Amino acid sequence: MNTYSVYSIKKEFARRYYYRSDILYRFLKQYHKNDRNQIITNQFNDITHSFSANEFNTKIKSLYNHKAIVNYGNNSIEIVQGKHCISLHIAEKQIEFRCDMIHDAEVLLFPILKLFHSSLFVLDNNLNNYGWISPVTKVKDYLDEQVLYSTL
What we know:
By secondary structure, the chain is an alpha+beta fold. It has a 7-stranded antiparallel β-sheet with strand order 2-3-4-5-1-6-7, sandwiched between helices. The longest helix is centred in the N-terminal third of the chain and has 13 residues, at 21-33. The protein has 6 helices and 7 strands; from the N terminus they run E-H-H-H-H-E-E-E-E-H-H-E-E.
């Protein structure tokens, strides 16, 4: 199974880094390697939204009421629908999920997340694969500004 992380990026930063997703990817990797660095931690907290586990659980119950098998654990959820299966671990600022193919997440997870968050960034924790789940509708003239710090 592949492991991925998804982040809800604030609109201002999503617009700024939509076409520079490599910078955002390197920043997120740097944050996870160096989460004790207060500057990087503050920047991470400034650019990301929090995930509400209660809202997420409520929405899953309403959407997958009798359509899927949903198992709840301590900050974790497993969803099985037909041949698609995904397991989630919900943290405050990210959702880490495991699935055989990213298509499973496209079917089971991403539609729910799009109900709450408009700018979602996903990265493969094992490979250098990353990208936006949701397109940014308006790109402003943020292309010359750089805010994120990364040493990678």
